Amino acid sequence: DQTSVQRFMATRDVRAARRALATQLMTGVTVQVTLCLVGFALLGYFMQHPEYLPADMNVKDDADDLFPEFIANRLPIGVSGLVVAAMFAAAMSSVDSGVNSITAVVMTDFLERFGWHPASERSRMRMAQALALAIGLVVVMGSGLMKYIEGNITVVTGKTVNLLTGPIFALFFFALFVPRAKPVAVWVGAICGVIAGASIAFSGHLVYLMHSLWDVDPGWFNVRLITNVDEVTGQSWTTAEDVISFQWIGPVALSVNLVVGLLISYALPARLNTQSDRV
To answer: Could you tell me the pTM of the whole model?
Structure first.
């Protein structure tokens, strides 16, 4: 996570970085637990009082809309405004950190690495500002398209973010704890991990593909075909329910990554512990 890494690198020394990491971990756990409790509270509230939901909403299919509905129509006037303001503040805080991190990565790992060198610090600053503006516009335009994405936002996020979380963790694991780790083993493990995670994330689409090509019965996987209708265009398409929950994407992808990487690393002949190997 570039945002966290750059935050730690800005500390005074290693001890300060450790304190920052400990603070972040404790704060993160507190925030996650609080958000889970809020979610359970909202779920219980609307399950006990379904009459408070609009006629076209239900708890299962419109989970993403429960919190906005509660804020807009159930919180007292004034409190709802404070909650919305806090949400905007949190969103801006997350966006500016991400934009700053992406800008730093693009300039350091791409532009400067492949030959671009600013004539002065002022030129460097202008390039950073231009990149930040361009990246910010892309983020804003991309976020405007989120309403057209079908499905629960938690599920959609889990199916995309978790595909790369495992390989990133495995990369640090091999670098820190596996002396015989080989670059080719890490690469092959990462590829296998991503494939395993993608197979779980899009298992419903794979089942429908097998049904379309080879007339495989979705019932073999204990799922059924479902038809979705696009709210904007009115077009419909058919797919199958996911065979495995998206919550298994991270654990399975990480396990496959580590097992494949370790097997290949120890199957290949050991080499001298050169500087390039350590790097």
So the answer is: 0.74
